[in-house]
C-alpha cells in the first residue's frame, strides 16, 4: 500500500530484514503519523512481548484524529 493512501495521520508498521538484520519500521507521511505508529508499536510490544512479524497499516476514517478529554469539566 503506498503511503499516499494512508493520509496525513496514518502509518505503516512492518518487520523487515535490512542487511540481514530484523528491523521494525514505522513509516508515515507526517510526523504525527509516526507518533501514532510509535504508540501502536509500544502497545504491541506491551501486549505481546514480541515485535517479530509486525504488519499493521492504519488509516483513520476521519481526516484528523481528535481526543475527547473530559478531565477538566470546570471549563
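^ Assign residues to that structure.
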Amino acid at each position: 500500500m503506498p503511503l499516499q493512501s494512508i493520509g496525513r495521520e496514518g502509518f505503516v508498521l512492518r518487520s523487515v530484514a535490512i542487511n540481514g538484520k530484523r528491523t521494525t519500521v514505522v513509516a508515515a507521511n507526517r510526523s504525527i503519523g509516526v507518533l501514532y505508529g510509535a504508540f501502536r508499536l509500544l502497545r504491541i510490544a506491551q501486549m505481546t512481548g514480541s515485535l517479530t512479524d509486525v504488519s499493521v497499516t492504519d488509516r483513520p476514517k476521519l481526516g484528523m484524529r481528535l481526543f475527547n478529554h473530559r478531565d477538566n469539566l470546570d471549563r
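The two ends are 43 Å apart (CA to CA).
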